[in-house]
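From the shared-data thread, chain only:
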Amino acid sequence: MTNAMQGSRNWLDAVKPYAQKAPLAAFFLGVSSGFPYAMIGATLTTRLAQDGIDKKAVTAFTLAFLVYNLKWLWAWIVDGVRLPVIGRMGQRVSWLLVAGVLVMAAVANLALVDPGSGLLQTAYAAILVGMAGATFDIVIDAYRIEMLKPEQLGIGSGMSQYGWRIGSVAAGALALVLAARIGWQGAYMACAVFALPAMLTGLLLGEPERHRDPIARRGLDEVWQSIAGPLVEFFQRRGALLVLLFILLHKIGDTLANLTFRLLFDDMGYTNDEIAIYDVGIGFWAYLIGIFVGGILYARMGMKRSVLLSLVLMCISNFSFAALAALGKSNWGMAGAIGFENFASGIGGVTVVAYFSALCDLRFTAAQYALISAAASIVGRFLTGTTAGALIERFGYVEFYLFTTALAVPGILLFWLMMRAGLIDASVGTAATENSKREPMA
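Structure, as tokens:
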């Protein structure tokens, strides 16, 4: 076999797993998961900034994301409560449809409020989008994990991140383009259709193969067990407290930085079209490349080393924005910073999400992943909403992004120590082991 033929075969072998049914479904689930985040994230930040709202108020709106961090409080309902009538379609499918309708209604409600005349009403509307989006995420994450086989967790996480990025970027870009032509109300209304891919996926594929039927709830004791069970099972594992500490710490700097990029771009004088080209356009392709590279690294390096590498890269990406702020307005500088940040985030989106998915016990998929994903960003979101604007105004963007770089270091060190202590292998749940031979995660 010639070198050219061998290279072509290797390329096809690398791409083939992405074309399987379960990873493709994870992609469409991700599209719908990403768009509510965009509606109350960068898009709402731009809308508020253009309406003349001050920085402290704008960054305070990121507190709406804290609803995502509270989703574990009601995730057990998605795991164990069967919906009347529509529940006959299946536990995951029925909740997928209901949550999708709720998201569409919440986004339409946010479209109808006017930040200039009713900032408090806008805050309530953003929180409603967060609640609906968090519920949608609970179902989507559970559906994805239960649909993927253990050996598909890395590829499936990558495809989910592809979808999430495309959904969030497409919704964000569409909102920017439409807002300049028909206004923000029409833009938000149009973006509500991004809930449909996940809903249609559930209707076409039905219940995931590894889903376990909910336990009948007959009394308060059973309800309490459905709430406490996921927590008890997780904390009985060796090193569970250190694993939880890593989940809480690893993304503080990255979250704090990411939720303030649009403020930096606005203050540097970039137009909506320039933001769409560099932040949305170049960032989009860099993220997709990062996801593909992340899938390869996960397969070649194993879970532990690929996660560690992604943590280091995400730390460096925060530093690139300190350099951009020091440089001043530069299209090439923005392209480089955005490109590297998204490339690093794409790799982390595969490796870290795969690790978090592997932590789940299939008896409590929705509840445990909701707890893990909520804990992963709660500290960063709280700091952004309460202190980011004030820190930027007091110290400036350069010092602020240097601070976010330093905040990423403890998570890197903790994960390295957990690797050396063997806690990574000990911490995974049945999502990573059931129905397959357990393989060492080099």
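Residues 3-8, 436-442 have pLDDT under 50 and may be disordered.
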